[in-house]
Amino acid sequence: MKIKKSKRFFVSVVSFLAIVSFLCVYATAAIAKYPEKPVSVIVPFGPSGSTGTSVNQIIPYLSKYLGQKVIMVNKGGAGGRIGATEAYKAKPDGYTLLAHNLPTAILGQLVFNAKYDMEKFVQIYGWIKEPILLAVHKDSPFKTFEELMAAGKKEEVSCAIVGFGATSHVLSVSLKQAGLKHRIIPFGSGSKAVKALLGKNADFGLPAAISSKPHYDDGRIRVLAIASEEPFPTYPGIPTFKQLGYDIELSMYRGLMGPPGMDESIVKILADAMEKALKDPEYLEMAKKSGEPVTPMDTATWKKVIQRSFVELKKLAPDMKADMAKNK
């Protein structure tokens, strides 16, 4: 018996819709079971860095509320670009995530043409906001930021930074724009830059607030200003740049993200687990003891932080590239 053309078309459409319906149900069921296996979080730096430390502290509690083991995987190199690129190209099934920091992640794209697009990463949750300091050796002749600025307007001083394209480089450019003439010396890591400051190998340095706290408490460094929006409780009495009359603010943000294409329901499961983890009394007590500046940022807030950072960093990227060109 011959089947009319229109009837064959109808049968084909019905079959196609049945297949699509089956796939949708299957995909929904798979997502509903997420996570069914351990989740890897790529940290694009070494295990002892500030990002690795922050992730190491939160993952036991993220595991607790996610119901699956969360594993930190260090993929260091190229200022975080190697690990970030691997995460960007990963399957968007929620089992490979990235814990990165701003502005480093964005600068990898704007300054170094990294093979990822930060605006296409799926943003999940942010949880750390750590300001940058301006510090000098305890024996420095500069007792205040005004004294350093006065000297830097007359002749070039030297500044220890982590490296070109790093967070400290961003603050260096902002200070130059404010009138502080200085020569930057990249040391390759935060710990090396601080050691250079402690060894009097630079007139001032731009270290992160938490990693510098032991040196500040021991009286080995003098902090002249802090780049936070408001006075930072860990450094009572230290003025912000804004209090000193300069429109300068810079903090390192750490957050969790996933490769492009992740399903929104998976993002919600992860975000809910992060929110619970960050409220866990045991985690909060540990973070308080270690000085972690916990600042929960839900998915919407974390997205806004990244969008705002893009706008601000695009203005500074040309000067950062110019610094790099001078030092080739």
Question: What features would you describe in this structure?
Answer:
By secondary structure, the protein is α/β, with parallel strands linked by helices. The protein has two domains: 38-129 and 252-319, Bordetella uptake gene, domain 1 (D-Maltodextrin-Binding Protein, domain 2, 3-Layer(aba) Sandwich); 133-249, D-Maltodextrin-Binding Protein, domain 2 (3-Layer(aba) Sandwich). It has eleven helices and eleven strands. Helix 2 (50-66) crosses helix 9 and helix 6 (167-177) crosses helix 11. The longest helix has 28 residues, at 5-32. It is globular. The relative contact order is 0.17.
Brief summary:
The chain is an alpha/beta fold. The chain has eleven helices and eleven strands.
The proportion of strand residues reads: 15-25%
CATH-defined architecture of the largest domain: 3-Layer(aba) Sandwich
Number of helices: 11
- The CATH topology of the largest domain turns out to be D-Maltodextrin-Binding Protein, domain 2
* CATH superfamily grouping of the largest domain: Bordetella uptake gene, domain 1
Tell me the domain tally. 2
Percent of residues in helices comes to 40-55%
Write out the strand line-up for the largest beta sheet, numbering strands in chain order. Answer: 2-1-3-10-4-11
Listing every helix as H and every strand as E from the N terminus to the C terminus, the arrangement reads HEHEHEHEEHEHEHEHEEHHEH
Report the end-to-end length measured between terminal Cα atoms: 80 Å
The total of beta strands comes to 11
As a whole number of angstroms, the C-alpha radius of gyration is: 24 Å
Mean pLDDT: 90
SS-based class: alpha/beta
User: What low-confidence regions span 5 or more consecutive residues with pLDDT below 50?
Assistant: 16-20, 22-30
Q: Biggest β-sheet, characterized?
A: 6 strands, mixed
The CATH class of the largest domain turns out to be Alpha Beta
Characterize the overall form. Answer: globular
